[in-house]
Amino acid sequence: MDPEPSLSEDDVRGIVWQVWTAYLNCAPEVTPAPEPPADTADVTASIGLAGAWNGLAVLRCGLPVAGVIAGAMLDVDPTSANADDCADALGELVNILAGNVKSLLPKPSHLSLPQVVVGRAKIVWPGTTPLHTLQVTLNTEPMLLTILHGQPKPA
Fold first, then answer.
1. Radius of gyration of the chain (CA)
2. 14-37, pLDDT tens digit by residue?
3. Fewer CB atoms < 10 Å away: N or C end of the chain?
């Protein structure tokens, strides 16, 4: 397996703070979080990181906070954001987060296209282990950002 990156929890917190303030116009509350059950989110967005280091960035949240993110990123009414708006916004947000994480990883590194699942589903990534899991609170609504290390294995 590839080496552990020099990616600290503080690095990930800093990335979250920069992305939230730049793209969502707010300062998030970021705290360590226990790994939640995989099927508790209404929206799950993930993106693969591959190269000298392999892993995933995964963002999970409920529909209310996904609507807030869609409102901020797509200039739509957060209360009327539809599933496509939420998927587009969360896919772009995880892409931005992962791009910032990638900049701290050994070279060469590449990003996959984001994958977004709207609806509760048991989503697992075999062959990976959590490196960092943070709870990010936006308007009192929690969301989880997890950086997973390892090469996902085909199901």
1. 15
2. 999 999 999 998 888 898 876 555
3. C
Burial zone of 15 (CB within 10 Å; 0-12 exposed, 13-18 middle, 19+ buried): buried
Q: What is the C-alpha separation between 23 and 55, in angstroms, rounded? A: 24
Q: Exposed, middle or buried, 37 (CB in 10 Å: 0-12/13-18/19+)? A: exposed
CA angle (41 as vertex; 37, 47 as ends), nearest 5:
95
d(CA 86, CA 142): 16
Contacts of 95 (CB under 8 A, 6+ apart): 47, 111, 114
pLDDT at residue number 31: 86
Do the Cβ atoms of 111 and 98 come closer than 8 Å? Answer: yes
Distance between terminal CA atoms of the chain? 19
pLDDT-derived band at 1 (thresholds 50, 70, 90) equals very low
